[in-house]
Amino acid sequence: MNHTELAALLAEPTTPLMRAALRELPPKALETLASAAEQATEQGWRQVIADRARAFADAQPDAGPQPVTAYFTTTEDSGSGASVSWSPFIAALSPTEDMPDLRHTKTTARMVPFGETAQAEEDFADPQLAEALQRLAVLDPPSHADVLCVHLPTSRVTRVRT
Fold first, then answer.
1. Which of 111, 102, 112, 107 has the alpha carbon at shortest distance from 144?
2. Measured between alpha carbons, how far apart are the two ends of the chain, in Å?
3. Which residues pair with 71 in a beta bridge?
4. Global pTM value
5. Tens of pLDDT, residues 17-36
């Protein structure tokens, strides 16, 4: 069995062969396998975020130095029990690695009238980016003051606690 066949079997853990194999593993090995799968999944979503942020930065008109970092702030989703998630909109593109001041009092914001939030997300948000940010928030929940930093040249995605 090669690594591609094994990956296909692991992607379908409910097949009879995989169920039998998983049943034979000791609990500690199952925990390790589940932890490794979660880390791989988290890294995959981080890569999607980096790719989509880079695509957005590349699509911007040339108005100076090429962005090096992109930043995402948090948003509160009151519809699902007041959970905190990552906003699907890039808060800032920066030509350096120095984080700009992203406080609400220092950032220019466009007001979206009540009831038009869903329309704004549909018009301006990147669905793949929004899904990746949501999934990452589920795997590693942010706090209200956290900022997600995407270093575009290296695709490194880190959370900064402010």
1. 102
2. 48
3. 92, 149
4. 0.68
5. 777 877 888 888 878 777 77
